Structures are given as structure tokens and as C-alpha cells.
Amino acid sequence: MTVEDATRGALWIGGGQWAGKSTVARLLAARYGLTAYHYDYHDARGHNDRRIALRARRGEPIDGPDPEQVWVHTTPERMAAATLAGFPERFAWALDDLRALTSGRPVLAEGWGLRPELVAPLLDSPRRMIVMVPTPEFREHQARTLPRAGRLGQQLSDPVRAQRNRLARDELVAQDAVDSAHRTGIRVLAVDGSRDASAVAEVVADHFSPYLAEAPQWS
Questions:
Q1: Of the candidates 5, 13, 1, the residue with the CA atom closest to the CA atom of residue 119
Q2: Structural domain includes residue 218
Q3: Burial class (CB in 10 A: 0-12, 13-18, 19+), 28
């Protein structure tokens, strides 16, 4: 199956970390009978063998870089640059996943690695994608209240600095998605926490409405 075949008719939610993309995708998938593809889940689990093979080909440590160098002894700018540089390779792996989907239902793909500049060439209309980004205040709120947003899952010498670096990196990566969306004519939705997930899902559903009109409604 070609990339065009795998992505024809797909809808896409990209953007920044902790904007509620996965929650919105789950709500819309249930409401409209879509197949949800969660990029972050596959990137963190199913793609690990590919990541290890890529490191081996490059002569890099199989276990990955030193966590201290990744999170503590660095700058948010270097972290963001490394993250952005890796997205094209990881996007290719996500497209392989999409080729393997055989649900027979329309696909709604979401995740921060689904960058506007990578997805745009696959779209017949920019309305098939939306970019969700948290405001800085909402990102801080998520870091305080979501366990998975507030921890790095590793023992580090300076976890406070590491988390500060992480949040600053996430803001830079989110801003890059916004800039890319503006260049490609894709809508940006800023999420500030003033609306609950269901209300945000309604906004996204309205954006996708030309492609959801024939789908089943809320039961």
C-alpha cells in the first residue's frame, strides 16, 4: 500500500505536548466511529526496535544518550533542535503504521510528531488537519496536575532543572508547530484550559465537519 492509499481520507491532529490531543481524538473516535492512531504510544513502544537499529547504524550507544546530558546538562534550545531533527524519520515510521491499519474506518491520527510540514503534502485540503497547542499557563498547569507530565521517569541529579528544561523545550517545539502551520495554511487551536475536553472536541469536530457529516452521532 502506498502512503497516499494509507492516508487518503485521514484526519490529523498535531501540535504541542499536553494540549489534550489524545483525549480529543478518543472522544471523536467514539463519537464518529473513527480509528484513532496515537502517535506517542507507537513512538514510545512499537518503534523502539527501529530506534535501536538506527543508533546501531550511526555508531551511537544502543541504550541511547546519557539521560544527564539529555535533560540536565543541556539547554532547551539544543533539546528542541534535536527533537525537531528527529521528527522526519519518526514520521516515516508512523506512516508505516498507518499502512498496516485495516479497520475499514476513517483514520484520525494525533500526536506531536505529526508536524504540519510533514503532513501537508499528503492533504487534499488543509482543513484535514488542526494543530493544538497549550498556552504557557496551561502547559504549567498540566505539568503540575498530570502525573505523566510532571515526571521524566528517570533518576537525575537535578530533576527540577530537567523539568524546567523539558517544559521550555516543549514550548519551543510547540511554537515551531505553530509557525509551520501558519506557513502551510493549517489552523491552530490554542488550548488554555477554559474549556473542558468535550468542549474542545466540539471545536475540533466543527473544524473537521465536512468529513464527519455522514458519520454516526453521539449515542
A1: 13
A2: no
A3: buried
Location of C-alpha cell 454516526: 216
Q: Which residues contact 173 (CB under 8 A, 6 or more apart)?
A: 16, 17, 80, 83, 84, 112
CA–CA gap between residue 142 and residue 148 (Å, rounded): 9
- The order of strands in the sheet holding 129-134 is 35-38, 107-110, 11-15, 129-134, 187-191
Domain of 78? 3-212
> Is 147 a domain residue?
yes
188 inside domain: yes
pLDDT digits (tens, 9 = 90+) for 130-188: 999 999 999 988 888 887 766 776 789 999 999 999 999 999 999 999 999 999 999 99
Closest CA to 18 of 137, 184, 127, 99: 137
How many domains does the structure of the chain reveal? Answer: 1
CATH number at residue 65: 3.40.50.300
Any domain includes 219: no
